[in-house]
C-alpha cells in the first residue's frame, strides 16, 4: 500500500486526526502541569492565523466559520482537560461529540466550497465574455454550441474572438471544460466542424494548443485565400538561417516559413503541383541570406539552377553566383555528395573551439562560416529502389543519407524533392524521419499523406486542392495548408541583382575538405550560363542477356559459376547471422520457424535450379515470371507448416540480391493460382501433401 502524504483531510480523516491531537495535547499538558491558559492562547492564535489565510485564498464564509468553531472548541476542551484531567467520562464524551459534529460540518463546508468554486469560474468566464462586442459574442455563442454538437458533447467556453486583419476569418480562444478535455480531442473533429459551419470550398478549421494544456485555439477561415496566386514579396532585405524564411501565406494571410539552421526538408508533389516553384522560392530566400550558400543536385541537366545561373550571367555576373555549386551529371553529383560527408566531418572536429566560445553544441554560422544548403531536385532519380541498383547512384544516395544523419550540428542541410510520397520514391526511411520540415503539394490520395506525415495527422488532400497549395508540417506542429508564393522568371533576375553582393564564400576549412572537386566545379559548365552543352560521353552498353519473361532483370534464372558458389554461401551465412542477431534483440526465438529458415538458407537459394518441366503448372509462353519458380522452391523447402509472403520476400532479398523482390500481394497471387500449393494456416503457404515434393 502506498500512502499519499499530500492528500487533504476529508470529513472522516480530518475529525479523527483533530480529536486524537486534541486528546494528546490535553493529556500531555495535564501530566506536565502546564497552565491551562497556554492552551487558550494557542487556540486563539490558530483562529486568527487560519482566518487570515482563508481570506487570502478567498474561501467561503461557511469555511471560515467552521475553522473558527474548530479552534474554539479544541482550545476550550484542551484548557478543561489540562486543568481537570482528560480521562473523565464527561471529558471524553464532550470530545467525541465535538469530533462527530466537526465531521458533519466539514462535509457541508466542502459541498459549499465546490459550489462556490464553480460559480467563481462561471463569473470569471462571464467577465471575460463581457469584453466581447455584439458580433464577437454571437460568434462565440454559435461556436460553443457547434463544438458541443459536433465533438460528442465536449464543452468549450470561448473567451476570446479575434477577427483577422485580412477579413478572411477569425480565431477563437477557448477554455476546455472539466473532465480532461484536450485541444487534440477537438482537432480530431475539425473536418466535421468545417462542414457543420458550411464553410466555402478551400476554407477550413485549424486547431492548435492554447495558453495551457486545458486551452485551445481554433482558426476558422471564411474566405478562400488558397485559390489565387500570391506573388513573392518585393522585399529583398537580408535574411538569416536562424530566423524563419517565409515561403508562403496561411489561410489568415500571415506569412510562414521554416527556420533553416537545423532543418532538413522534404518536398513531394505530382507534376504541375508547383513543387519546382516552391524550390525556387526557397532558393530566393537562400539568395537573401547572409550566412548560407546553395548547392544544387539536379540530374536533369541542372534544370533547377539554370534560371538562376543564366539570370546571373545576363546581369554581367555581379558579385558571387546565386548557386555556389551545380551537379548536373551523375559523376558531379557523386563528387559533391562525397564532399558533403568530408565537409561535415571536418567541421565537427575543426570548429570545436568556435562552438565552445559560443557555448553551443551546434556550429555557430555567419558570413565567415556559412551553412551549406543542398537542393536535390527529383530525388527519386537517386533514392528510388530502381536507381539504387546502379552503383554510382547508390553511392550518391548513401553519402546524402550519411550527411543527413551526421551533419545537422555542422550546418550542412538538405532539401529533397520527389514526385510521390511513397516508399518506392523515398526508399530510405532516414530521409523521411530526419526531414523536420515537410511539404506535400498535390498528391494522389490520403494514403500518401499517411506515409508522408504519419498517421493521425488530421489532414486531407482536399485541404490543398489547388496548384501552389501545400500541406506543411514544421517539426512536431500540426499539418496545415499553405499557399506558396509565386515566383516568376523576371523576379528571379531582380533577386539575383539585388543580392549578388550578399552571398558568402565557403570557409577555408570546408574548402580544403571538399578538395579538388570543389575547386574544379565550374569545369564544363558553360551551358549553365547560356553556352553550348558539353559533348555527351558515349559509353558502349554492356551486353545483356535476352529477357526470359515479364519483369526480368539481370542474373535472374541463372546459377552462379562453381567458382562463385562459396561466395554465395558465405553471403547467405552472413545474412542468417545478422537476422538471428536482430531476432535475439527483439524477442524470443521460435525453434520451429528457426529450423524452417535454416532449411531455406541451406537449400533454397545457393544451389537452386529451375524445377523440371513436368512439375510446373502449365503456362503460356512469355506469361510466366521466372521469380515464380524461385518462390515455389522456397515454399517447398519451408515444410508442411508453410511460410508467409513476407518471409518469402526476406529469403529472396537475402539470398538473391540481384533479383527484384516481388510485392507480398504478387507472391500471394502467384501461390493462390498454383495448384501445387495450399494454405495450411491463415497467411501461410505450403506444398500440397499429395505432391511428392511436399512429403
Outline:
Helix content is 45%, strand content 12%.
Would you write up a description of this structure?
The chain has helices at residues 13-32, 36-56, 61-84, 89-129, 134-150, 183-187, 190-196, 275-288, 303-314, 330-350, 352-358, 380-383, 391-406, 429-434, 446-453, 489-499, 508-514, 516-519, 565-586, 591-603, 626-638, 645-655, 664-672; strands at 156-163, 169-176, 205-209, 215-221, 230-231, 248-249, 255-256, 265-268, 292-297, 325-327, 371-376, 412-418, 437-440, 469-474, 480-486, 677-678, 686-687. The protein is an alpha/beta fold and 695 residues long. The protein has 4 domains: 13-128; 131-221, Threonyl-tRNA Synthetase, Chain A, domain 2, CATH 3.30.980; 244-518, P-loop containing nucleotide triphosphate hydrolases (Rossmann fold), CATH 3.40.50.300; 562-694, no CATH class. The protein is elongated. 35% of the residues are buried.
* Spatial separation of the terminal alpha carbons: 60 Å
CATH superfamily of the largest domain: P-loop containing nucleotide triphosphate hydrolases
Strand tally is 17
Q: For the residues shown, what is the average pLDDT?
A: 79
- As for the CATH topology of the largest domain, it is Rossmann fold
Largest sheet: 11 strands, mixed
- Count of separate structural domains: 4
CATH architecture of the largest domain: 3-Layer(aba) Sandwich
What is the highest CATH level, the class of the largest domain?
Answer: Alpha Beta
Q: List segments where confidence is low: pLDDT < 50 over at least 5 consecutive residues.
A: 1-6, 538-566, 604-622, 691-695
* Shape, principal axes of CA atoms: elongated
Helix and strand content put the structural class at alpha/beta
- How big a fraction of the residues is strand? 5-15%
The portion of residues assigned to helices is: 40-55%
Number of alpha- plus pi-helical segments: 23
Radius of gyration, whole Å:
37 Å
Amino acid at each position: 500500500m502506498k500512502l499519499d502524504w499530500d492528500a487533504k483531510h476529508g470529513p472522516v480523516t480530518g475529525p479523527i486526526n483533530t480529536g486524537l491531537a486534541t486528546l494528546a495535547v490535553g493529556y500531555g499538558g495535564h501530566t506536565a502541569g502546564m497552565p491551562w491558559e497556554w492552551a487558550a492562547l494557542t487556540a486563539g492564535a490558530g483562529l486568527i492565523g487560519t482566518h487570515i489565510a482563508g481570506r487570502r485564498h478567498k474561501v467561503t464564509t461557511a469555511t471560515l466559520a467552521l475553522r473558527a468553531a474548530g479552534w474554539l472548541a479544541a482550545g476550550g476542551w484542551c484548557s478543561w482537560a489540562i486543568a481537570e484531567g482528560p480521562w473523565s467520562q464527561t471529558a471524553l464524551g464532550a470530545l467525541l461529540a465535538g469530533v462527530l459534529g466537526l465531521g458533519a460540518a466539514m462535509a457541508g463546508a466542502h459541498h459549499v466550497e465546490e459550489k462556490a468554486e464553480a460559480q467563481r469560474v462561471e463569473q470569471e468566464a462571464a467577465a471575460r465574455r463581457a469584453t466581447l462586442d455584439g458580433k464577437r459574442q454571437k460568434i462565440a455563442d454559435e461556436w460553443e454550441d457547434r463544438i458541443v454538437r459536433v465533438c460528442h458533447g465536449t464543452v468549450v467556453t470561448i473567451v476570446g474572438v479575434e477577427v483577422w486583419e485580412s477579413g478572411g476569418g477569425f480565431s477563437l480562444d477557448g477554455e476546455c471544460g472539466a473532465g480532461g478535455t484536450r485541444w487534440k480531442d477537438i482537432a480530431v473533429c475539425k473536418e466535421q466542424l468545417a462542414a457543420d459551419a458550411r464553410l466555402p470550398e478551400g476554407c477550413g478549421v485549424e486547431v492548435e494548443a492554447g495558453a495551457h494544456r486545458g486551452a485551445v485555439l481554433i482558426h476558422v477561415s471564411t474566405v478562400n485565400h488558397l485559390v489565387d496566386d500570391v506573388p513573392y514579396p518585393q522585399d529583398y532585405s537580408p535574411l538569416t538561417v536562424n530566423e524563419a524564411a517565409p515561403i508562403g501565406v496561411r489561410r489568415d494571410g500571415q506569412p510562414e516559413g521554416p527556420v533553416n539552421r537545423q532543418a532538413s526538408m522534404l518536398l513531394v508533389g505530382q507534376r504541375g503541383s508547383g513543387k519546382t516553384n516552391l524550390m525556387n522560392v526557397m532558393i530566393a530566400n537562400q539568395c537573401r541570406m547572409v550566412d548560407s550558400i546553395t548547392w544544387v543536385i539536379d540530374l536533369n541537366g541542372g534544370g533547377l539552377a539554370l534560371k538562376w545561373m543564366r539570370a546571373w550571367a545576363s546581369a554581367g555576373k555581379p558579385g558571387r553566383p546565386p548557386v555556389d555549386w551545380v551537379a548536373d551529371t551523375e559523376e558531379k553529383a557523386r563528387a559533391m555528395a562525397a564532399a558533403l560527408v568530408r565537409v561535415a566531418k571536418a567541421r565537427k572536429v575543426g570548429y570545436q573551439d568556435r562552438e565552445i566560445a559560443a557555448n553551443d553544441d551546434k556550429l555557430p554560422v555567419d558570413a565567415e562560416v556559412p551553412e551549406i544548403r543542398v537542393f536535390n531536385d527529383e530525388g527519386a532519380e537517386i533514392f528510388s529502389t530502381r536507381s539504387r541498383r546502379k552503383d554510382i547512384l547508390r553511392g550518391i544516395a548513401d553519402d546524402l543519407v550519411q550527411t543527413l544523419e551526421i551533419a545537422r550540428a555542422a550546418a550542412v542541410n538538405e532539401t529533397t524533392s520527389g514526385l510521390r510520397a511513397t516508399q518506392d520514391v523515398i526508399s530510405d526511411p532516414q530521409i523521411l524521419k530526419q526531414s523536420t520540415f515537410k511539404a506535400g503539394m498535390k498528391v494522389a490520395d490520403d494514403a500518401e499523406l499517411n506515409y508522408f506525415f504519419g498517421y493521425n495527422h488530421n489532414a486531407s488532400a482536399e485541404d490543398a486542392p489547388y496548384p501552389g497549395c501545400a500541406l506543411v508540417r514544421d517539426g512536431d506542429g500540426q499539418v496545415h495548408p499553405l499557399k506558396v508564393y509565386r515566383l516568376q522568371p523576371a523576379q528571379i533576375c531582380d533577386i539575383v541583382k539585388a543580392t549578388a553582393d550578399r552571398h558568402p564564400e565557403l570557409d577555408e576549412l570546408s574548402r580544403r575538405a571538399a578538395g579538388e572537386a570543389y575547386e574544379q566545379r565550374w569545369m564544363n559548365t558553360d551551358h549553365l550560363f547560356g553556352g553550348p552543352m558539353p559533348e555527351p560521353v558515349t559509353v558502349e552498353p554492356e551486353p545483356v542477356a535476352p529477357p526470359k519473361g515479364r519483369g526480368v532483370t539481370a542474373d535472374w534464372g541463372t546459377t552462379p559459376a562453381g567458382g562463385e558458389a562459396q561466395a554465395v554461401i558465405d553471403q547467405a551465412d552472413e545474412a542468417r547471422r545478422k537476422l538471428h542477431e536482430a531476432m535475439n534483440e527483439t524477442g524470443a526465438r521460435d525453434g520451429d520457424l528457426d529450423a524452417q529458415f535454416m532449411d531455406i538458407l541451406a537449400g533454397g537459394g545457393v544451389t537452386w535450379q529451375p524445377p523440371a518441366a513436368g512439375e510446373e503448372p502449365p503456362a503460356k509462353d512469355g506469361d510466366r515470371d521466372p521469380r515464380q519458380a524461385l518462390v515455389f522452391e522456397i515454399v517447398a523447402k519451408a515444410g508442411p507448416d508453410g511460410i508467409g509472403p513476407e518471409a518469402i520476400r526476406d529469403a529472396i532479398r537475402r539470398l538473391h540480391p540481384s533479383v527484384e523482390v516481388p510485392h507480398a500481394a504478387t507472391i500471394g497471387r502467384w501461390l493462390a493460382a498454383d495448384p501445387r500449393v495450399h494454405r495450411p494456416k491463415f497467411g501461410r503457404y505450403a506444398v500440397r501433401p499429395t505432391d511428392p515434393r511436399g512429403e
